[in-house]
């Protein structure tokens, strides 16, 4: 129970901080746009992503968490296009020609259809990098023993937050917003 509370508090803090970064950069409007469909898809593909990402932590910690945001963007794009048709896309569709290594470019160009080096693409990439840098700093501030169960769970929670940030970025880019309904 204590561990669950710790992980939930870590995840909440991280999500708030990353939302603030995205809002300050004009990429979100202070609200994390989300859908249960998207979170369900994360839970379906997370084991494969985390297996790939864990291998990269030591050499490329920022990349190991950042790529989850790109996955969030891809899944949000599928949700917007034709969820009934695209919701069962396998994790392998997200991998680039070099596998995990160029997943970001593959998603941005081939799935989202964004032009490489455009102002929009650069803004997204810079925002995701800033979020990933902050996420890695959060992990390091926890002073967790490397390769411990706690390190694994904090990493998994961080990847989930990055996924949600990416999904929110894409939903916002597509024009979705949250509004209070009046009765």
How would you summarize what this structure contains?
With 183 residues, the chain is mainly alpha-helical.
Structure description:
The chain is globular, with a radius of gyration of 16 Å. Helix content is 69%, strand content 0%. It contains 6 helices and no strands. The model has no long low-confidence stretch (mean pLDDT 94). The longest helix has 26 residues. By secondary structure, the chain is mainly alpha-helical.
Keywords:
single chain; 183 residues; mainly alpha; globular
What is the alpha-carbon Rg in Å?
Answer: 16 Å
Low-confidence regions: none
Report the principal-axis shape: globular
- Mean pLDDT across all residues, rounded? 94
Helix content percent band: 55-70%
State the separation between the terminal residues, measured CA to CA: 40 Å
Number of helices: 6
Number of strands: 0
Order of helices and strands: HHHHHH
Give a quick account of the main beta sheet: strands, pairing sense, barrel closure.
Answer: none
The assigned structural class equals mainly alpha
